[in-house]
Design a protein that fits this description.
5-stranded mixed β-sheet, 33% strand, Alpha-Beta Plaits, 6-stranded mixed β-sheet, alpha/beta, 273 residues, single chain, elongated, D-Maltodextrin-Binding Protein, domain 2, 3 domains, 9 helices
Length: 273
């Protein structure tokens, strides 16, 4: 089993892979999220794992946008506790640090610590990739924000632990596949839909779920990127798309003439944070 993820070895996405598939999973690091989606789409890997939202900083918009350009399903979700460390080369001390590198989401999640530190913040494509870069370039006056695992993999020094602003820092990941998952009785479904620019269109769309007593767990809008000020809606709800009441709601939504894409049904993550 081969699983693609975005980032370098030691990234939180890699930890999510092992949390879902177990320690024996073969991983394929990818430069960016597009490469993860392409890897699964082109069947270079059987699965991919991508971050979809963080409990503090919100959604990973690129992940949502990529579902519109790829024909993939969500077959699972993982919720991972995220704890950040400040990491540097073994000979570097905190007073030596002039710049801190990391993914923009990680920098945002550690905003208060980094503001107190008062160093230059430099966004990069990956948390663990920042640690790898410091090691390869031998930078003695810089640090990176990443996982304890990344420090271990690259033989680096931890200057500070648990630097995130809030200990309730969790990231939710989707597992990508060509097919979604079978019904388990504790499922969720994710969809994308559009609503006409008419009074009450969104109200009526959501009403299809309300009148069938289907619980919505998330709704978010994103620009269609086709027509200015028009939006698609990303919706998660409890239940499997094959359940009669869920199937009826989806059928009613499709009959309304709105754009509808079912991303997949999958078992709820064991830990909800």
């Amino acid at each position: 089993m081969k699983v693609a993820f975005q980032g370098e070895r030691g990234a939180f996405s890699e930890s999510a892979v092992y949390a879902f598939f177990g320690a024996k999973a073969e991983v394929k690091p990818c430069r960016d999220l597009t490469e993860v989606f392409d890897s699964v789409q082109e069947q270079k890997t059987q699965f991919g794992v991508v971050p979809v939202e963080n409990s503090l900083e919100g959604s990973v918009n690129q992940t949502y946008d990529l579902f519109l350009t790829h024909d993939l399903k969500v077959c699972g979700e993982i919720i991972l506790r995220v704890s950040h460390c400040l990491i540097a080369n073994p000979s570097t001390n905190l007073d030596d640090v002039k710049a801190v590198y990391s993914h923009p989401q990680a920098l945002a999640q550690c905003r208060r610590f980094l503001e107190r530190l008062g160093r230059e913040l430099i966004p990069t494509y990956d948390t663990a990739g920042s640690v790898k870069m410091l090691k390869e370039k031998g930078l003695k006056d810089a640090a990176a924000v990443a996982s304890e695992k990344a420090a271990e993999i690259y033989g680096m020094k931890i200057l500070a632990r648990e630097i995130e602003d809030n200990p309730s820092n969790y990231t939710r990941f989707f597992v990508l596949s060509k097919e979604d998952a079978s019904r388990t009785g504790r499922d969720k479904t994710s969809i994308i839909f559009g609503a006409a620019h008419t009074p009450g269109s969104l109200y009526h769309a959501l009403g299809e779920f309300a009148k069938r007593n289907i619980n919505l767990t998330k709704i978010e809008s994103r620009p269609t990127k086709q027509t200015p000020w028009e939006y698609n809606f990303y919706l998660d709800f409890e239940g499997h798309r094959s359940e009669p009441r869920c199937a009826e709601a989806l059928e009613a939504l499709a009959k309304s003439g709105a754009f509808l894409k079912i991303l997949g049904s999958y078992p709820k993550a064991e830990s909800q944070g």
